[in-house]
Amino acid sequence: MQLLRRFAFVLVWLLELLLVASGALLLAAWFWSGTDGSLATALRQAQPYLPAGQSLQVQQVSGSIRGGGRIGMLHWQSDGLDVQLRELRFAWQPLDLLQRRLRFTTLSIADVQVDDQRPASAPQPPPEVVLPLQLELPFSVARLRLLGTTPVEVTDLDGTYRYADDRHQLQLDSLAVAQGRYAGRLSLQARAPMTLDLLLQGTVSAPIAEDRSVALEASATLRGTLAGTDARLDLLAQLRPGPGNAGALAQASAMRATVSAHISPWATQPVVRAQSSFNHLDLAALWPSAPRTLLTGNAWVRPVGQGWLVDFNLFNRAAGPWDKGQLPLDSAKGLVELAADQWSVQSLNAEMAGGRIRLQGKLADPAQVRADDGWQGLLQLQGINPALLHSRLEAVPLDGTLKARAQDKAVVFDLALQPAAGQPRASALRGVRLRDATASGRWADGWVRLDQLQLRTAQASIDGKVDVQLSRQSASGQLQLVAPGLRARLSGQFGASAGDGELTASVTDAAATRRWLARLPLVPAIVDDIDLQGSADIALRWNGGWDALQNPGRGPAPAIDASVDVPRMTVRLPDQATDQAVRLTDAELRVSGRLDALELSARAGAARAHQRLRLETAAGGGRDARG
Questions:
Q1: Would 54 disulfide with which of 78, 133, 273, 485, CB 3.0-4.6 Å?
Q2: What are all long-range contacts of 520-524, with beta carbons under 8 Å and residues at least 24 apart?
Q3: pLDDT digits (tens, 9 = 90+) for 222-281
């Protein structure tokens, strides 16, 4: 019995000691969490315990866990998702945890950048999101950038997020994107059926002239459920002139649009039914990277049997070149059907760039289709003016067809172009008299491979094959030119940092070649005035990249080996009489070496009237970093 009492005494003493020690540790942790530097220590100690595939880096950390603090830079990565935060400041009420409540009083971030490179996957219904405690989080983000194919930048993002009574709530006080400023609210049930209620309202300032803009009111509602594969949502979005406009700006001619849709978000074809109408709609006012437009028209998506039918008709009264921030489309009318897991473009007719296009195509299994698999199409062109597509292209109206299909993880295409009838007087093709141009090849992994390239004019032709790597601005291939009095061949590799190739040309009739060259666009006028009679052989080999030509001194200079042999040639300038023409015989020119250390030699016999001259010379020199 006495032994039992001693054991009980020791046990009680140990429990008291443990409680005192635990209390002391908790008290110490409480005081430590309030000391300056505790936040940096906690973040540093947490990094090794992150799940596999995740990393966390922080810089310029100050403040405490309990009292809040500042993080100059926070960088978190996880399996292709990259998030960077700058100038993060926060403060919270830790004692509220005793009431099962997490409450922040401040959370501000100067800049958030999100880059999501994770592989695309089919959308799935979300799981229930039930939190173990109540949450209140007021936030302020000066700038949010979403990187990717279509970058998006949002500024002045302010609001409050709350979680209570199994419901997520977001009060959005401010959000600015493109030319619009918005506010709204969201309510989402944490448990199934996860009822969603979203309201977004805002104002948009759309420029209609250099010194005029129209104020627009925008609103959108999204209501329904998110849980399960049978989830349904109803969308209604409207854009209309605001109360601050007067006169014509407040009438039907001002920008307005209405979109309504019934959506099944997790289905292969999410849009069950939709309808939209719009008038003078400027896409650039709503989305930063979109072109300027004035679209008027309507579109429908409606069920037909076991599939859907998409029907649209629109006009654009602000058509212009793409590089000028405009859309080179005047009008479009189309009918697209989805049936048996296949998209079918039954008809798409458009007027654009001064001409017309017609598109037909098929897209198999939209749920799994990729850019390099599961589709085919035929595009027909009539009178398309490239200068109206891009202002740096020639004003040469063209007709043609483009056939393309996805095959073996590549885009296989056949292109055929010919000049449209009735070329304008200023057309660059009037002198060239283009008959046709054809190309066939593949596009895959950043490479455009032209297995067959042919260009034919009334007097000349170019044949060959070319491989172009767009990302590296490099190319390789072989081209052959046959023109009046001229045969030439070009083969090799061309790139910024490396290259190797050869050019050979044989001029058998210089007079015929000169007359042909004079008809080409961009050729100096003197070529049309000078008189040449004779023949010549030209050869050029090179080794090196073209970057050194633009930036002398950056890397080794390219090397060349060039020769020009002229057995006989008569040259008469425009202001010279016939007996004043210069007659060259046995002329040879040699240039070899790197561009910064060239060697040149030349010799020739020359005669004019009764004068005779024999020339032989040699020289050296080159181009350095100063040009």
A1: 78
A2: 520/431, 520/432, 521/394, 521/428, 521/431, 521/432
A3: 999 999 989 999 999 998 887 766 555 555 457 788 999 999 998 877 888 899 998 888
Domain annotation covers residue 237: no
Q: Residue 24, CB half-sphere, CA atoms under 13 Å: how many? A: 6
Answer yes or no: do 476 and 454 share one domain. no
Last residue of one domain, picked from the residues 403, 424, 458:
458
Q: What's the CA gap between 386 and 395, in Å, rounded?
A: 6
Q: What is the pLDDT of residue 368?
A: 46
Spatial distance between the Cα atoms of 431 and 518, rounded to a whole number of angstroms:
9
Which of 412, 437, 458 terminates a domain? The answer is 458
Residue 222 falls inside a structural domain: no
Query: What residues contact 127, with CB distance under 8 A and at least 6 apart?
Result: none
Q: Is the pLDDT of residue 17 over 50?
A: no
Please count the structural domains in the chain: 3
Q: Report the percentage of the chain scoring pLDDT > 90.
A: 34
389: tokens are 């597509």
What's the mean per-residue pLDDT of the chain? 83
Q: How far is Cα 294 from Cα 330, in angstroms, rounded to an integer?
A: 10
CA angle (465 as vertex; 383, 505 as ends), nearest 5: 100
- Both 435 and 494 in one domain: the answer is no
**426 and 519 share a domain?**
no
| Threshold 0.85, pTM exceeds | no
The C-alpha atoms of residue 254 and residue 256 are separated, in whole angstroms, by 6
Any domain includes 195: no
pLDDT category of residue 555 using cuts at 50, 70 and 90:
low
State the residue for tokens 């009111």.
Answer: 217
N-term to C-term CA, the chain:
106
Residues 477 and 499 in one domain: yes
Establish if 276 belongs to a structural domain.
Answer: no
Residue ranges with strand state E in 16-133: 54-64, 68-78, 81-92, 101-116
The pLDDT value given to residue 526: 76
pLDDT tens by residue, 60-69: 999 988 888 8
Co-location of 416 and 532 in the same domain: no
pLDDT value of residue 620: 76
Which structural domain, as residue segments, surrounds residue 363?
319-458
**416 and 333 within one domain:** yes
The three-state secondary structure class of 74 is strand
In this structure, are 429 and 478 located in the same domain?
Answer: no
Q: Write the DSSP assignment of 575-610 as a string of letters.
A: T--GGG-EEEEEEEEEEEEETTEEEEEEEEEEEETT
Are residues 432 and 568 both part of a single domain? no
> How far apart are alpha carbons 580 and 567 in whole angstroms?
20
Q: Of 480, 478, 442, 449, nearest to 462 (Cα)? A: 480
